[in-house]
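agent> Task received from the user: take the single chain below, predict its 3D structure, and emit structure tokens. No templates, no multimer pairing.
agent> Plan: (1) validate residues, (2) run structure prediction, (3) serialize to tokens, (4) report one or two observations.
agent> Step 1 OK, no nonstandard residues flagged.
tool_call: predict_structure(input=
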Amino acid sequence: MNQTQSVFSRFSIIIPHKDIPDLLQRCLDSIPVRDDVEVIVVDDNSDPRKVDFEHFPKWSGEHYQYFLTKVGKGAGYARNVGLDCAQGRWVVFADADDFFTKDFNDLLDEMVDSEEDLIFFDYINVLSGDITRQVEDRKWYSKFMASYRNGEMDETSFRSMVPVVWCRMVRREFIERNGIRFSEMRWSNDLFFAAQVGSKAKTIKVSDRIGYAVTSREGSLTKDFCGTAEELRVRLKEGLKSENMYAQHQLPCKGRMTSACLAVAYKKKGFLWCFGFALINIYDWPVAKVMLAFLAKKMLRKR
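)
tool_result: status=success, residues=303
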């Protein structure tokens, strides 16, 4: 199901959604109403007890589409559905529980004629339940962007430092030419997409405008990070795949995409659980190997 079909647009904003219609509406309300913007929402088989599909959240602009998928394949699949029908020159990704700031409209004006393949812009991190309160839960990437803008980090290093898809504009022609799509699993579905874009973009730009608000809330996929063996395995596989992509393009990233997962799992579960995880996943040697190497370093440090 979809609403008004889009005509030519300069910007396509793609939003995956599941079970949080009030937060989705907040996100939609933050998007400036412009003739050159299209908004595409893809619902990932939401629970009808949580979402009133007869009164699905709407954007006030003319060029708005929403798709109600019933396969439940996660945000990566939903974003791919959005990419398949996007028409804008630039693609912008947002999470349904985040929103855009007032500066986003000016950012669109400034970047509409840019020639780069990839544009990063800055963000704030706030509590979802009280957006007046800024927090530091997810401010690492903003610090990397500041370091790059200030000349403290070179472009080669920066390209592998921001493995997320919000806070960036990507030229759609570049995405299609390189056949870039999202991984379709529950966790880390955007990691390899970000790695491909960051590695393959011929030119990049980093704006100091704060165009986005990332929220922290209970119940999000990142709140209980690596809480299960299945999640850890998926995140490690995507991390290793992303590290290999950066390495192929001579970008420094060895261990960076997997180190956080390994450290969190070790802190939460302990040595024996992690060792058992490696043994159980011995058939998937890259995953087992990275865990065993991590544990070996831990043991050497204790000596």
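agent> Step 4: summary for the user.
Residues 67 and 77 are 12 Å apart (CA to CA).
agent> Done.
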